[in-house]
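Chain X:
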Amino acid sequence: MSFAENIKAKIKDVDVEKQLTELVDEGEKLVGDAVTKAGGIAHDKRGDVEGWLNKASGAINEKTEAKYADKVSKVRDTLLGGLDKLASKRVMNPVAEIETPAKPGTTGANGATGAAGQAESGAGDGPEGSPLS
């Protein structure tokens, strides 16, 4: 058996491809988790960062007599845009569910019946039961 064939056989025995795939998958998961956490921090601290950038922009413009104000503003906007892009990678908390009214003939989550249930009980029959009368 040649050296190359020997190495190929060892690679098959050790199943390097499977181990590398698992390693890459785990690495991608870790990077994804890190980006998500960084996005959350970027979202939480955006106001602070914007304040620091405003302060720095003001100091630079003051020292240079606003000679480079357009460039300073462009850098500031680019940095804030990048921060917003990172912040968009955060995990969004789900919004509380809104309770929808019961459909006619059904019972809602709070036990209220829909329009058909009212008609069966006699409530709302005719003009005298109408809320507009």
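Chain Y:
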Amino acid sequence: MRKSNTIVEETWWKVSQAHTVKINFDATYNKKESKSSSGITIRNGYVKVLHSKVSLHENIPTSFAAKVVACLQAVELGFFVNLPMVEIEGDSLTVIRKMKGDREDKSEIRPCITDIRSMSKRFEKCVFKHALRQENKSTHILATKGLKRREEFYLSNAIPGYAEQSVEINERMLGFPVTG
């Protein structure tokens, strides 16, 4: 049996370690329509956005399930772009804690939790971290606008203009020169 390389941490947003990229995720949920939208950003250690993605989902039973689906999408995107070491951050503390993997999950979203735990072991290193809403702002904006506009996209080395300001604010908070 392979030793688990998945770690759960709660911390303020900060620059990731060398060779590790940050994958941030968030979801917005429409209870009336049972639909959600996932927003995901991947950034390098210098806060530069490497990838951004918005996906729409149907038949989502709860806002909690929407957050778990967004986390699953974040892990899948990390594989898609072939990242060996990742820090996966979301603002749902409950979702982040479920990733620890010590106990079998018995909730309605067990299949997603199981998939995330299994997939996270395939990374060379995978750390799940809780991010405060303000620190996860760009992904929140992506998810909210995606659901409102009913749009999906995947961008490489870019983020939509409506989310650029939140990225620039993070850069300034961390002391990086803003290049926009």
